[in-house]
Amino acid sequence: MAPVVRELARHPDLVEPQVCVTAQHRELLDQVLNLFDIRPDIDLDLMRPGQTLPALTARVLTGMTHVLARQRPDWVLIQGDTTTVLATALAAFYLKIPVGHVEAGLRTSDRYFPFPEEINRRLVGALATYHFAPTPRARMALLSEGVDPESIFVTGNTVVDALYWILGRPPSPEAQALLARVKRSQQKLILVTAHRRESFGEPFIEICQGLRAVVDRNPEVMLVYPVHPNPNVRKPVKRFLSGHERILLLEPLSYEPFVRLMQACYLVLTDSGGLQEEAPVLGKPVLVLRSRTERPEAVEAGVARLIGTSKERIVSEVERLLGDEDAYQKMAQAGSLFGDGHAAERIVRILLEGTSEEG
Fold first, then answer.
1. How far from chain centre, in Å, is Cα 87?
2. What is the CATH number for 143?
3. 228 carries an active-site annotation
4. Same domain for 142 and 194?
């Protein structure tokens, strides 16, 4: 959402943006706020240790209802598919405040994958007033659910805007220090992120065992893994991946050093949605640690591949790209399937034009 916030700030004569955060993930949030120099006007600070989905949803719904009733904004903008997004959309609906959903229309068509995000975004699709779809496929998904075509706008994804903004800046000292730490001659750097709730338990153990086997079997590989703070992630990661000289486990990185790490890597292993959009911009093959994706465009283009969570599949797919240069080059095609870096401009223009017409 940072590119949208920055674009709104460019029109002080037309709009007064108010940034509200729930701090559903405090550590991850603060890094992004600092990077993009965004100072929230309202910080609900709702994160609690060991929080459950029902409790978090109730806190966000109640907290955002109080905020919206007090502020009475003309529009509420939300992005993505988190619990915060669903609860905020519902709070705005109860107060009859229009909602603009950024990154609308992403679907896997399986209500439990990813969990709970797939249902979150489907419900938001019924609650939102404007739907800012990143791709034509996302627009078609919304149309198939009966969404008014006049309310859907294909804008590209704002994550591409954020990535291009970072790439246009010089590397920070933090990023330079990180690259100096991980770069070693003749080694192929594999970047890993994995944190999906539906993989907790045995699937996550399989992921960790597969990653360990890749490093053990391939001496040219160095694996770097910024580890999500959730204890369901940290426990198996520590058990299977700690103590290896070619596995570097990091605390969650701020966005800019992470982008530099992505630039330097050989390939990406991830269950993240955003990385399926970002890594292809940099020409990095993506092996997706999931059986389904709401971003099939990357798979169809051949720059991403769904490989699931089994140890054997992880090892075979990584070793295929390590050993087959032709297979690697076919996936290492730079280009953006999800936007041109101007999504935020389109979103703000649509909002301002629509508000002007309604006014």
1. 19
2. 3.40.50.2000
3. yes
4. no
User: CA angle, corner 277, sides to 9 and 18, nearest 5?
Assistant: 20
Residues 289/194, Cβ–Cβ less than 8 Å: yes
- Please indicate whether residue 66 is annotated as part of the active site: no
Note whether 79 and 221 are same-domain residues.
no
Q: Are residues 323 and 190 in the same domain?
A: yes
Q: What is the DSSP string of 154-218?
A: E---HHHHHHHHHHTSPPPHHHHHHHHHH--TT-EEEEEE---GGGTTHHHHHHHHHHHHHHHH-
Q: Which of 195, 196, 212, 346 is catalytic?
A: 195
| Active-site residue, from 197, 244, 246, 320 | 197
- Asked if residue 280 lies in contact with residue 159, where contact means CB atoms within 8 angstroms, the answer is no
Smallest CA-to-CA distance from 241 within 221, 267, 262, 263 is with: 221
- 142 plus 180 within the same structural domain: no
Q: Do 145 and 192 share a domain, yes or no? A: no
Query: Which one from 117, 198, 294, 317 is the annotated catalytic residue?
Result: 117
Of the candidates 6, 7, 59, 81, the residue annotated as catalytic is 81
Q: Is 26 exposed, middle or buried (0-12, 13-18, 19+ CB in 10 A)?
A: middle
Told to judge if 197 belongs to the known catalytic residues of this protein, a careful annotator would answer: yes
The active-site residue, picked from 7, 101, 103, 137, is: 103
Structure tokens at 325: 């240069």
- Per-residue pLDDT of the chain (359 residues), as tens digits, is 999 999 999 999 999 999 999 987 777 788 888 888 999 999 999 888 888 999 999 999 999 999 999 999 999 999 999 999 999 999 999 999 999 999 999 999 999 888 899 999 999 999 999 999 999 999 999 999 999 999 999 999 999 999 999 999 999 999 999 998 887 766 899 999 998 888 889 999 999 999 999 999 999 999 999 999 888 999 999 999 999 999 999 998 888 999 999 999 999 999 988 889 999 999 999 999 998 899 999 999 999 999 999 999 999 999 999 999 999 999 998 777 888 999 999 999 999 997 544 43
CA-based nearest residue to 160, from 349, 334, 25, 38:
334
197 and 267 in a single domain? The answer is yes
- Concerning whether 195 is annotated as a catalytic residue, the answer is yes
